[in-house]
Amino acid sequence: PTGEPGAGCGRTPTLGNGTHTIQSGGQSRSFILRLPANYNSNTRYRLMFAFHWWGGTAGDVAYGGADGAAWAYYGQQEQSNNSAILVAPQGIGNGWANSGGEDVTFVDDMIRRIESDLCVNTTQRFALGFSYGGAMSYALACARANVFRAVAVYGAPRELSGCSGGTQPIAYFGIHGISDNITSGRSLRDRFVRNNGCTAQNPPEPAAGSRTHITTVYSGCRAGYPVQWGAFDGGHTPGPVDGGGDSGARTWTKGEVWRFFAQF
Fold first, then answer.
1. Greatest alpha-carbon span in the chain
2. Which CA distances in Å does 181 have to 87, 119, 132, 234, 246?
3. Which residues have CB under 8 Å from 189's CB, separation 6+?
4. Would you state the torsion angle of the CA atoms of residues 78, 131, 87, 122, taken in this order, to the nearest 10 degrees?
5. How far apart are CA 23 and CA 29, in angstroms?
6. How far is CA 101 from CA 48, 49, 104, 139, in A?
7. How far is CA 233 from CA 5, 129, 146, 175, in A?
8. Got the DSSP string for 70-136?
9. Which residues of the chain fall short of a pLDDT of 50?
10. Which of 74, 103, 94 is nearest to 86 (CA)?
11. Span 10-42, pLDDT tens digits
12. Which residues pair with 125 in a beta bridge?
């Protein structure tokens, strides 16, 4: 991708694949990094942060659990095809309470550390996550709309990680199951429908028992600030499959999220 090069472009990297620890807010914090194969210090890569769910870990995200590489980083390792630097941060107590903004600060510190060493397109930063990780991605949409290009929020139950700021536009993709307190997902979405200047609507959602999903692209949004809504017949999961079930290997979410990010 073209765009603004970060400070790490052209440098021999010291960061490699695996777990790294940094100091942030007086605490030792960690993240798992995945570089593109054949990383080139003169290529400006996308930078993608993938946040785990409540009780999950950075390792669950980075290694894809039972689905393995097909679901690593919510499937974005597979989908990005060596065009992105991927980061799975570890939450305190396996959550993202973001007390006093400490997790947003942690993200700021990770960006600083990674971009001082690796070649990042600084106009191409993305965040995604499921459940509590979706709430953390939402907190970044609110507090760092000028830092991140887009977010994907899967099944966020509420503003669990807060919403400091929350008045600026950012490209937003909300994904939610109809049997998973979907009113919460709609209200989170509608903040960015407003911020992005989109035409308000109640997008269609699939019927219970249909085992399908419906993704709607909002109209009227400011150029460069789209909003998408993906509603599916199912519950609290980031990996729904049309026809029923959950599978990181077979879910439609990873391809749709990748296409949403890759348009920028």
1. 53
2. 28, 40, 14, 11, 18
3. 153, 172, 174, 227, 229
4. 100
5. 6
6. 20, 17, 5, 9
7. 41, 19, 33, 11
8. GGGGGGHHHHHTTSEEEEEEPPGGGS---GGGHHHHHHHHHHHHHHTTS-EEEEEEEEEEETHHHHH
9. 1
10. 74
11. 999 999 999 999 999 999 999 999 999 999 999
12. 47
Contacting residues for 254 by C-beta, under 8 A, at least 6 apart: 71, 74, 75, 76, 78, 79, 248
The CB density around residue 117, as the number of other CB atoms within 10 Å, is 20
Token duo for residue 69: 């590489």
Task: State how far the Cα of 125 lies from the Cα of 67, in Å rounded to an integer.
Answer: 25
Which among 37, 38, 48, 45 is positioned nearest to 6, based on CA atoms?
Answer: 45
**What mean pLDDT, rounded, does the chain reach?**
97
**Number of helices and strands (H, E) in the chain?**
6, 9
Q: Side by side, which strands form the sheet with 45-51?
A: 18-24, 27-34, 84-89, 45-51, 120-130, 150-154, 171-177, 227-232, 213-217
Name the amino acid, one letter, at 259. Answer: R
Distances (CA, A) of 37 to 34, 64, 80, 120, 254: 9, 18, 11, 15, 20
- Retrieve residue 19's tokens: 């777990």
CA distance 108 to 223: 26
Q: In the structure encoding, which two tokens stand for residue 36, read together? A: 């593109």
What pLDDT is attached to residue 2? 57
Question: How many other C-beta atoms lie within 10 A of the C-beta of residue 19?
Answer: 13
Helix, strand or coil for residue 18?
Answer: strand
CA 51 to chain CA centroid, Å, is 7
